[in-house]
Design a protein that fits this description.
Blueprint (H helix, E strand, L loop, with lengths): L3 H9 L19 H14 L7
GO molecular function: ATP binding
Keywords: ATP-binding, Cytoplasm, Nucleotide-binding
Organism: Thermus islandicus
Length: 52
């Protein structure tokens, strides 16, 4: 399934008044608990198991 965001970027690029800002992971500030949850999911995807 196509990402709606990717599709919107493709369709809307070049339209005057519309701009896209791309963030890196280091640009995003999260609550510490949310950061730990995201890290746990990333580690699980890499086969690192679940939990501390």
């Amino acid at each position: 399934q196509k990402s709606g965001l990717v599709e919107a970027t493709r369709i809307l690029k070049g339209i005057e008044g519309i701009a896209f800002i791309y963030f890196k992971e280091s640009d995003v500030v999260r609550h510490p608990l949310v950061a730990r949850i995201i890290k746990a999911y990333e580690e699980a995807e890499r086969g690192g198991g679940a939990g501390p």
